[in-house]
């Protein structure tokens, strides 16, 4: 085994210090997320990513194969984090209206606090979902998101609180759309119409109104939302 192969196997980082593989990969993914979000898949450079990590370009190729493989893993990690956040909400133990409220609030807050996630999704749409199509993991993760809404809607309908025709997939679309636009179009919207909605007070008002709109759509008239 050559010296370079041994270095790869042991995970020796820049400067000769030994790293744990999970820590190395986490560092690479964090840097790559920022680079891909800022520059897109075609504009991001592996040399630039490597220069900002605590390891070498060779280690990046060792763990992720190539730039496309790294980009795909960045997408997977971005979706994993948002779905993990949803899992920690413990929605199944909340009344259906409160569960839906909590999910909408979380989605709005997550997207607002993670503009890189929004940019990555926009970039993937430019590529017509090519890399999401390659990832079985992303499909499984997002199926779980709709399953959570299916469970909430089912409990709400059984309690006579939710409308019988509420569709969980449509509901997911609405929550995503309202929360996504707030970040994706901030630059153009604020330049054209001003920054009022992007002040602290403006964002809090929008958050409350997004929750109200979704609940009014799902909850039958006459039931508290």
Main features:
single chain, 225 residues, mainly alpha, Arc Repressor Mutant, subunit A, Tetracycline Repressor, domain 2, 2 domains, 12 helices
Descriptive notes:
The chain has 225 residues and is mainly α. It folds into two domains: 1-65, Arc Repressor Mutant, subunit A (Orthogonal Bundle); 76-225, Tetracycline Repressor, domain 2 (Orthogonal Bundle), CATH 1.10.357.10. The protein has twelve helices and no strands. It has helices spanning 3-10, 21-43, 46-52, 57-64, 67-87, 96-113, 115-126, 130-133, 136-158, 168-184, 186-193, 200-218. Helix 6 (96-113) packs antiparallel against helix 12 (200-218). The longest helix has 23 residues, at 21-43. It is globular. The N and C termini lie far apart (66 Å). It comes from Chelativorans intermedius. Residues 22-82 form the HTH tetR-type domain. Pfam families: TetR_C_29, TetR_N. This is TetR/AcrR family transcriptional regulator.
In a nutshell, what does this entry contain?
By secondary structure, the protein is mainly alpha-helical. It has helices at 3-10, 21-43, 46-52, 57-64, 67-87, 96-113, 115-126, 130-133, 136-158, 168-184, 186-193, 200-218.
């Amino acid at each position: 085994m050559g010296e370079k192969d041994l270095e790869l196997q042991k995970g020796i980082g820049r400067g000769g210090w030994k790293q744990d593989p999970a820590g190395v990969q986490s560092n690479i993914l964090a840097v790559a997320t920022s680079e891909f979000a800022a520059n897109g898949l075609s504009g991001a450079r592996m040399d630039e990513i490597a220069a900002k990590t605590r390891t070498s370009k060779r280690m990046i190729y060792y763990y992720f194969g190539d730039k496309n493989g790294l980009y795909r893993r960045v997408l997977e990690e971005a979706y994993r984090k948002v779905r993990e956040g949803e899992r920690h909400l413990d929605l199944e133990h909340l009344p259906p209206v409160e569960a839906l409220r909590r999910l909408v609030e979380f989605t709005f807050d997550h997207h607002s606090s993670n503009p890189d996630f929004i940019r990555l999704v926009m970039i993937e749409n430019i590529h017509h979902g090519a890399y999401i199509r390659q990832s079985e993991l992303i499909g499984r993760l997002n199926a779980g998101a709709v399953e959570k809404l299916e469970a909430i809607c089912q409990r709400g309908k059984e309690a006579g609180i939710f409308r019988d025709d509420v569709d969980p997939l449509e509901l997911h679309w609405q929550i995503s759309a309202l929360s996504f636009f707030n970040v994706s179009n901030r630059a153009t919207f604020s330049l054209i119409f001003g920054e009022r909605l992007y002040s602290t007070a403006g964002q809090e008002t929008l958050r409350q109104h997004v929750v109200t709109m979704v609940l009014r759509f799902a909850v039958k008239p006459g039931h508290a939302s």
